[in-house]
Design brief:
disordered N terminus, 5-stranded mixed sheet, 28% strand
Length: 209
């Protein structure tokens, strides 16, 4: 039974790697984000999540991806617990409410075969695989801009971030079956949030009504 299991996994691994080399595997576009730790500070403002646009031409099913990402961004900012409340438009902004709009010019995720995989997997009779040798290289390139507006549509500030993440994947990795890119997306969102908090800590912006 164990021997058959090993043979089955090896066949699937070699086959999937061959498909990647031939360019036959498409990588689904992910939108999930890791759950953030709540912040120790907060602000007396309600946040509204407005538009989420992806201008990267390589993204397929763009409308569905944008809609899913918008929901996950809303959940992320709710879990951060920095704002009094977090909502999604449409809705009515009042008083000190702010609106966040997002635009992503790069939203790429690729998977390629690690250069050492084939020679070492064959040369070691697949021991390379079972001892955690890298099989794939997963890469994420994301560029995003966060624009903040007040309740009447005046832009308060704009911040941007670029994240490039590249890591090896072996047979024991949680992303072995399907790359997610979740860490890169979360890093980008965390960076945008950190910069936004810095802007809100500016007295000039924080006193804007």
């Amino acid at each position: 039974m164990l021997l058959n299991r090993i043979k089955s996994v090896c066949r699937k691994t070699f086959f999937s790697a061959f498909l990647l080399l031939s360019g036959c595997v498409s990588i689904p576009t992910g939108t999930t984000l890791n759950k953030p730790d709540p912040l120790q500070q907060s602000i007396q403002r309600n946040l509204w999540i407005g538009s989420v646009k992806i201008t990267d031409e390589n993204v397929v099913n763009k409308l569905a991806v944008q809609d899913s990402l918008r929901g996950n961004i809303k959940n992320y900012f709710s879990q951060v617990a920095y704002f009094s409340s977090v909502n999604t438009l449409p809705g009515n902004l009042n008083g000190n409410d702010v609106q966040f709009n997002f635009q992503f010019s790069k939203y790429n995720q690729t998977r390629s075969v690690h250069p050492a995989y084939f020679p070492l997997a064959i040369g070691t009779l697949t021991f390379y695989i079972w001892f955690g040798g890298p099989i794939y290289v997963d890469s994420s390139d994301i560029s995003g801009v966060l624009s903040c507006q007040d309740a009447v549509g005046n832009q308060l500030f704009q911040v941007s971030s670029n994240i490039h993440d590249e890591h090896n994947v072996n047979i024991w990795s949680t992303e072995y079956s399907l790359p997610s890119g979740i860490n890169a997306r979360t890093s980008l969102m965390q960076d945008l949030l950190t910069q936004a908090i810095g802007k809100f800590n500016d007295k000039k912006i924080n006193n804007t009504q």
